[in-house]
Write a structure and sequence with these properties.
The complex is a heterotrimer of chains A (405), B (359) and C (85).
Chain A lengths: L4 E10 L5 H10 L4 E3 L12 E3 L5 H8 L9 H16 L10 E6 L5 H11 L15 H11 L4 E5 L5 H14 L5 E8 L3 H9 L23 E9 H6 L6 E10 L12 H13 L9 E3 L6 H15 L6 E2 L2 H4 L6 H14 L2 E2 L21 E2 L4 E8 L3 E8 L9
Parallel strand pairs in A: 4-5, 4-6, 9-10, 9-13
Antiparallel strand pairs in A: 1-7, 1-8, 2-3, 6-7, 8-14, 11-12, 13-14
Helix pairs in contact in A: 2-3, 3-5, 6-12, 9-10
Chain B lengths: L4 E9 L18 E2 L15 H4 L4 H17 L6 E5 L5 H13 L7 H6 L4 H10 L4 E5 L5 H14 L5 E8 L3 H8 L9 E2 L16 E8 L8 E10 L4 H14 L9 E4 L8 H9 L7 E3 L1 H4 L6 H14 L18 E8 L3 E8 L5
Chain C lengths: L1 H14 L25 H15 L9 H4 L3 H11 L3
Chain lengths: 405, 359, 85
């Protein structure tokens, strides 16, 4: 059962790129995807900036060439887009006799359509076919149908840590030999429900967010989807697959402090990071770079910083939040930032924590704010969510088969 | 297969009385309703009144079932918490969504938004217990509880947990019921639950419920059943594929059809989709006594958690209640029980529960 | 002022769903958060919405809430100072 797990394919779509190459390019040139709202119809249109994918629902459906007779949600469309890329990049085939599964994640689910048609649903009107697209598992099934995956499906929904949890669950399914390949990740589209919901918590920044900055005023929401293909190392080698990264360690812990705020000493985040690193068989000082959760909220950045100091002492490794590039993509954030972490590692570059100017006095931690060269062998990525759900994953460089994707 | 996984405790809040452990499904409530709702315990007896104010029904149901399960298992703490829910917190979602639509996205309040996230139940249980361990929520229709079970079994096999709390919960609301009647998922008019399997209205009799279990890596004097296996199947191409799925599951668990003492099936009163169960009962499973349970709790995505509560109760009491048995149970003392459930032929699941192995 | 305080107590009980509490149970000088009534940060956000909905007063920065919501009395004083409707 000590068999390792590697990433053999990736796919991603967000406001900074419609695939892995575009995403890398944006990260390299410091191009953010956050800007004025033009697709989401909301009265708050001029109040906030978001990481929005500049395609309408119709344009997305046409671009993906999907069957227009099926009830598509934006969440499902983004998911299909990224999942197809991952599937192709790993050279998967559902005719291979391999058991292929899909572990996806979503917090929004089909709400992007449900909120438009909700009053209709109650009166037996024309949008009935969207009644059953509301639930979180729907986008997973749309992806599964698109790729013809049957062997195992499930959907995880633990707020912002969701897609890191997908990665973990998928890795474990492989280690128990329940599957041979698993597509793991998540998808979330922007919706008025989440925009308004976060607004009631007063943790949205009206301007471009400033993670880990003393003057930070909150987060910017984003949308997107990302998937990794995971396989057992021995199978990847036998199948001569590209091995993009090792899934070295992972952990999920609970802060058990409050429904939405993290505890002052960042216990949940601390445990998640500590256990993930230990599971990777590493010491904290072997982590070369951390892609932090870094949402730009008062509470998260402070407590995440406190947790990092507790774990790493004076030797907190170089870290940055990339949420000022993509926005906070909720259910997709774990996997999107995993892909960014892997790109970082495989290109030996730290992508900058944009908008950082002034250090948070209480923690005195300075993120990397310029594109920087750094030899990265082990990268840690964090995603911390509501309900105290805290997850961390460690990816390690595959030394003998480095892919520059 | 995965490692031995024992059931040490369970708790359920469903449309039937379950709190009296000695009266196992003896006093059955009869309903003539559009949807079944849980028999509410006195929540104040289990949950701090100051905290209750923010909790919706689904959270309260979960906390009580979890507490009862842990009490029965004699544990104060667990190493992991997994929850499955198909539709999550409907009351809070509706509250926020309706307010958002009616108020034109202004003057909205945070509580219902926060409480609408799917992992709220797991998060609240963690808060109640001060539990900082692994805590996941699975939200995939009728695979939700089964995924939670699989996660639990894997954790135990990985030796990452000795005791795991797992549960399945779903709630029904007037609005969500009404919406689903529009697409014939649920019956539009009231029907007697005792006669639901003959009710010809399209759709199922809808319901709600919560059932939690304490699973253990080790057998102890608290142990009364063993969770042998769980498996799911998505969109089988044919009846043959479904039957192969069942046969393969038994082979993996080193059992033959003749070893199964009872199959508990998820018939829910839907005249179209119940045929799948009827076909199985008259074909592959024709030699095995069958039972049905959704007349007791109604249809909801995580109803299989109640089926597991029933099955493990049967094994504990060594008695098959007449209310669930399709025909008078003439079998020998039940040892191996199979639970089979499907959602409109899309999502199929199997759970195998047995008397504890002599280890 | 008295009338406002009484009205506030009722509104708060309703908004925060404080089922077991009556206006008589709340002393206007008791702290609402922490030890007193035991409210938390989510309740503070609910009170911010209450202020806007019932009294037309907008609070932009949630951190200002700490001072304003210290007690029913401080809330009432704030409302009297800033009320627009």
């Amino acid at each position: 059962m000590a068999e390792g797990v590697v990433v053999t394919g990736m796919g991603i779509v967000s406001s900074i790129g419609f695939n892995v190459d575009e995403t890398l390019h944006s990260l390299m040139i410091g191009k953010t995807g956050i800007g004025k709202i033009s697709i989401l119809e909301t009265i708050h249109r001029d109040e906030f900036v978001l990481g929005e994918i500049k395609l309408t629902h119709q344009q997305l459906m046409e671009k993906l060439g999907v069957d227009l007779n099926l009830p598509w949600t934006r969440t499902a469309l983004l998911g299909v887009w990224a999942a197809r890329q991952a599937y192709q990049s790993a050279g998967l085939s559902t005719n291979s006799g391999k058991r292929i599964g899909l572990v996806s994640a979503s917090t929004v689910g089909g709400m992007d359509r449900s909120e438009l048609y909700y009053k209709d649903f109650l009166t037996d009107a024309i949008h009935k076919n969207h009644i059953d697209t509301h639930h979180a598992g729907n986008s997973t099934e749309m992806i599964a149908d698109d790729l013809n995956i049957h062997d195992y499906l499930t959907t995880i929904s633990t707020a912002c840590s969701s897609s890191l949890n997908s990665i973990m669950f998928g890795a474990r399914l492989l280690k128990h030999n329940l599957l041979d390949a698993v597509i793991v990740g998540g998808t979330d589209a922007l919706s008025r429900f989440t925009l308004n919901g976060f607004n009631t918590l007063m943790i949205l920044d009206h301007e471009h967010c400033r993670p880990f900055d003393a003057t930070r005023r909150g987060l910017n929401l984003g949308e997107g989807a990302g998937y990794l293909v995971l396989e057992r190392t021995s199978d990847a080698i036998a199948g001569k697959k590209q091995m993009i990264a090792k899934v070295a360690g992972y952990a999920n812990a609970n802060d058990a402090f409050h429904q939405t705020a993290s505890s002052d000493n960042g216990e949940g985040p601390f445990l998640a990071m500590k256990l993930a690193i230990a599971k990777a068989g590493l010491q904290p000082d072997e982590i070369d770079y951390i892609n932090v959760h870094g949402t730009g909220t008062d509470n998260n950045d402070l407590t995440e910083g406190v947790a990092m100091k507790r774990l790493f002492g004076d030797q907190v490794p170089p870290f940055s939040s990339t949420k000022a590039f993509t926005g906070h993509t909720l259910g997709a954030t774990g996997v999107i930032e995993s892909i960014i972490s892997i790109l970082s590692m495989n290109n030996d570059k730290v992508f900058p924590n944009i908008n950082f100017k002034e250090v948070i006095e209480e923690i005195n931690l300075v993120p990397v704010s310029q594109l920087t060269d750094l030899n990265i062998n082990h990268v840690l990525t964090n995603s911390f969510g509501f309900g105290g759900n805290d997850s961390s994953v460690v990816f390690s460089k595959v030394q003998s088969n480095i892919s520059r994707t | 297969m995965l490692a031995p996984t024992y059931i040490d405790g369970s708790g359920a809040v469903v449309p039937q009385p379950t709190m009296n452990q000695d009266k196992f499904l003896e006093e059955i409530l009869e309903y003539n309703e559009r949807f079944l709702q849980v028999v509410s315990p006195v929540y104040k007896d289990y949950i701090d009144v100051k905290l209750l104010r923010r909790m919706s029904k689904i959270v309260k149901m979960s906390l009580v079932s979890a507490r009862v399960a842990m009490q029965q298992a004699g544990v104060d703490q667990v190493d992991a918490i997994m929850t499955g829910t198909g539709m999550g917190c409907q009351i809070d979602t509706e509250k926020f969504l309706n307010a958002m639509i009616e108020n034109g996205e202004s003057l909205l309040t945070p509580t219902s938004f926060i409480q609408s996230t799917h992992n709220t139940m797991g998060g609240q249980i963690a808060l109640m217990l001060g539990n900082k361990n692994h805590n996941l929520a699975y939200v995939h229709r009728t695979f939700s509880f089964e995924s939670a079970l699989l996660d639990a079994m894997m954790m135990i096999a990985e030796k990452e947990a000795q005791k795991v709390l797992v549960g399945g919960i779903d709630e029904i609301t007037e609005e969500s019921w009404l919406i689903k009647t529009q697409i014939d998922y649920y019956k539009k008019n009231a029907c007697k639950n005792s006669a639901v399997y003959n009710d010809l209205q399209p759709g199922a009799l809808s319901g709600e419920g919560s059932a939690f279990f304490v699973l253990s890596a080790d057998r102890s004097e608290k142990t009364y059943a063993q969770l042998k296996g769980v498996s799911t199947l998505y969109k089988p191409g044919s009846n043959n594929e479904l039957e192969d799925f069942i046969k393969r599951f038994l082979v993996t668990n080193e059992l033959e059809l003749s070893d199964i003492d009872l199959v508990i099936m998820g018939n829910n009163g839907d005249p179209v989709f119940d045929r799948v169960y009827e076909d199985l009962a008259t074909d592959l499973l024709k030699t095995i006594p069958t039972g049905r349970f959704k007349h007791l709790c109604g249809e909801y995505d995580t109803a299989s958690s109640f089926a597991l509560w029933i099955a493990s109760g049967i094994l504990r009491h060594q008695h098959v209640p007449s209310t669930i048995s399709q025909h008078p149970f003439k079998g020998k003392k039940p040892k191996n029980i199979l639970i089979y459930n499907h959602f409109r032929t899309i999502n199929h699941s199997l759970i195998l529960v047995t008397t504890p192995d002599v280890s | 002022m008295e009338a406002l305080i009484e009205k506030l107590k009722e509104q708060i009980i309703k908004q925060l769903n404080l089922e077991d509490i009556t206006p008589a149970d709340i002393n206007e000088e008791d702290s609402l958060f922490g030890e007193g009534l035991g409210l938390d940060s989510i309740d503070a956000l609910e009170l911010i919405v209450l202020l806007e909905k019932e009294y037309g007063i907008r609070i932009e920065n949630p951190k200002d809430g700490q001072k304003i919501f210290f007690s029913i009395k401080t809330m009432a004083e704030f409302i009297q100072e800033h009320q627009k409707k």
